[in-house]
Amino acid sequence: MKVFVTRVIPEEGRKLMIDAGIEVQEWKEKRALSKEELIAHTRDCDALLSVSTRLDKDFLHASRHLKVIALHSVGYDNVDVEAATAVKIPIGNTPGVLSGATADTAFLLMLATSRKAFHMHKSIIKGEWGFFDPTANLGIELRGKTLGVFGLGKIGLEMAKCCIGAFGMQVIYHNRNRNETAEKELNASWVSFDELLEQSDVLTVHTALTPETEGKFDRSAFNKMKPHSIFINTARGAIHNEPDLLSALLKKKIWGAGLDVTNPEPMHPDHPLLNMPNVSVLPHIGSATEETRAAMSVLAARNIIAGLKGERIPFVVNPDVYK
Ligand code: 8YV
């Protein structure tokens, strides 16, 4: 049995597959594969372990011989899941193990933005640490403020816990369905989307990218937010409209923004958001810790091993494939 892996992954996951008797063929070049290359490389493989690779209908139809596809991510917006189900390929993801690391990144962006930390660091490098002015470089404080979570699932819950523990923030959230565990554990209140926009001092996005959430944070949403609010997105860049975000910041409709995800990725190095004092941008490193990436590779490997044994994969995103 042979698996094609679209990037070099942590040793933990690779070893698990090798120990299970699977031949592991990794794509070692530092560039993404084209669709044609991906089809060609998976042609003689039984499984695919996919890292940040678009798997569209054409690819899935051309690769219907695959017994399983494991993603090295919790998000599966990169995959045409309906097409995978139609050709009976189970798709697996890596839920849970990256919640802490991703929430840490959201917290880091919130705090860095509130104190203009990225901008201040750049100003030292530019030789601008000069005369002390008590009215300059002022940030805003987070103690006792309201955290609004858009998509209170595992990651949102971790972020909310950090914000309560560090700053005693009140938590409000908007989900399609109420999260009663979070309501009990965090004393969080469900609010409508408009109320979330109007009441949050920090609004943090932790939802999946779906047709319903795509472009959700646009001009009309930013216009409803508080002028002193901070917008944080560590989920997917396509959930916010980037030109509308830029314009909301320039027009002071909101105070600041922290992004680990942009639209498109990578963000262009000349993008104006990168030079705004109240904006912090990171290059999609939410899950990038040694511990989390190792754990993700292990879950992905477990999906591959089960799929190749003909068993139900443990973290399936399209359970209909087993009907
Ligand atoms: C992944 C992510 O590491 O898991 C996700 O959904 O966004 C990331 O943390 C990245 O997409 C690479 O697979």
Report on this model:
The strands form 2 sheets. A 7-stranded parallel beta sheet has the order 8-7-6-9-10-11-12, with helices on both faces. A 5-stranded parallel beta sheet has the order 2-1-3-4-5. It folds into 2 domains: 2-95 and 289-322, NAD(P)-binding Rossmann-like Domain (Rossmann fold); 99-281, NAD(P)-binding Rossmann-like Domain (Rossmann fold, 3-Layer(aba) Sandwich). The protein contains 12 helices and 12 strands. The chain is an alpha/beta fold. The site of 2-keto-D-gluconic acid has 9 residues, from loops. GO terms for molecular function: glyoxylate reductase (NADPH) activity; hydroxypyruvate reductase [NAD(P)H] activity; NAD binding. This is Lactate dehydrogenase. Residues 108-286 form the D-isomer specific 2-hydroxyacid dehydrogenase NAD-binding domain. One of its GO terms (cellular component) is cytosol.
